[in-house]
Design brief:
mainly beta; five-stranded mixed sheet; 27 strands; elongated
């Protein structure tokens, strides 16, 4: 239907429009086409002319049995950046997908298995020439970890990467890698070669890498995201787990990150354990306590108590911080006047530097506790604190005062 309208004044020469019947069929908005076979070409409606506004369409591909992957390659690509986009899904469901939008020709992509789905979406204005996409079934195996799956890794070293690294990773995707090192291994160290994931508002992570200190999700872990390369991270023992998560962003233009490359190596060197809620008993006259992995970043979701029992005759224990840097103020160090009753806390410290209060922290008696706690995100280098037992101390004056009173009483009794 063509509709022409004029108002009550001023006329111009008007228009001539030619029309011609065409055998070309435009897929119905909101519809789905089921495709089978070994290859084919998908195009936006009216390609190579401008596509329709406010339009959606889905193509579901089922390749023949024996197909190991479906390869997708764009010969032309031009969409409004990025309100109009093409999504290539790794199955017939709305699971993990790769977003394509803008005016640059996307890199080719291979989807593992014989099923895939292509979805095209446009908004209400701003139409471009669209796309031409070729797909072909292949016996080539695409080594992309399955969405929501688990990969078991063994050996002494390896490299873990996000899917399609160094190209843009999949959205709405998650995968777990469980590492089991050989017997005799006492630690596993992780080092990021590259990290680039979505982090819109620090410290919140939209897409992230999570490293656990065992094969359990309840174990101590650290979360890494954004574009800042993290410090090496070491876990105690021969077991560790890496988890990668990407969300389904509301604004697709924000999803253009290359992901990560993470190297892991093993060692027979023993490192302090990063097991949550751990307690260490210390004895003697002095020592140094550090956060796990110090001077590298400590772990998230971590709690540790160091219970100090100094030698008999100790009147006080003095603490001097050599370094201090924690997330302010949700990761903190707390020092207790005995082995940890809540009412005996004498100081709670947090932040990016050594506060003035740490210049003279002294407990009374031969017992003290140092408690360290972290939350679920953002880690820093932590702390190093030295403790020294003494026969006298600032807070130990009360004990000395009672001792002097006893001496005076004895002297008075002798005089009488």
């Amino acid at each position: 239907m063509v509709f022409f309208y004029t108002d009550a004044s001023i006329v111009f020469s008007g228009f001539i429009i030619e029309w011609e019947a065409s055998p070309y069929t435009v897929p119905m908005d909101g519809g789905t086409t089921e495709l089978t076979g070994s290859l084919g070409t998908l195009t936006s409606p009216y390609y190579p002319f401008n596509y329709l506004d406010d339009y959606q369409y889905t193509w579901k591909i089922t390749a023949p049995s024996g197909t190991n992957s479906i390869q997708f390659s764009f010969s032309f690509f031009e969409t409004e950046n990025c309100e109009d986009y093409v999504r290539i899904y790794t199955s017939h469901s709305h699971a993990a997908y790769s977003n394509k939008c803008g005016v640059s020709l996307p890199a080719s992509i291979g989807i593992s298995g014989r099923y895939a789905m292509v979805f095209f979406n446009t908004d209400i204005n701003g139409a471009y020439h669209g796309f031409s996409l070729q797909w072909e079934a292949s016996t080539t195996i695409v080594n992309i970890p399955s969405n929501s799956g688990t990969t078991n890794l063994t050996g002494s070293s390896g490299t873990i990467t996000s899917p399609y690294y160094p190209s843009t990773y999949l959205d709405n995707y998650q995968h777990t890698w469980k590492i089991t090192a050989p017997s005799g291994i006492n630690s596993i160290t992780f080092m990021f070669v590259t990290l680039q994931t979505e982090q819109l508002n620090k410290p919140v992570c939209q897409d992230y890498v999570q490293i656990y200190t065992s094969h359990s999700t309840s174990s101590t872990n650290t979360v890494k995201c954004g574009s800042t390369l993290p410090s090496p991270y070491t876990v105690s023992g021969r077991y560790a787990m890496v988890y990668f998560y990407s969300n389904e962003a509301e604004t697709v233009s924000l999803k253009a990150y290359s992901g990560f490359s993470l190297q892991w190596t093993t060692s027979t060197t023993t490192v302090p354990s990063s097991i949550a809620f751990e307690t260490t008993d210390l004895t003697g006259t002095s020592g140094t306590i550090t956060s796990p992995n110090y001077p590298n970043n400590y772990a998230d979701n971590y709690e540790h108590r160091w219970k100090i029992t100094a030698n008999s005759g100790t009147i006080s224990i003095q603490f001097v911080f050599n370094a201090f840097n924690t997330e302010s103020c949700v990761d903190y160090v707390q020092i207790y006047n005995n082995h940890g009753s809540p009412s005996s806390s004498i100081t709670k410290i947090c932040g990016p530097s050594i506060p003035d209060v740490t210049s003279d922290i002294t407990t009374t008696g031969r017992y003290a506790t140092v408690y360290f706690k972290t939350d679920s995100s953002v880690t820093r280098t932590g702390f190093s604190v030295t403790w020294t037992a003494s026969g006298s101390g600032r807070l130990g004056l009360r004990s000395n005062w009672h001792h002097l009173n006893l001496v005076w009483v004895l002297l008075l009794l002798c005089i009488i």
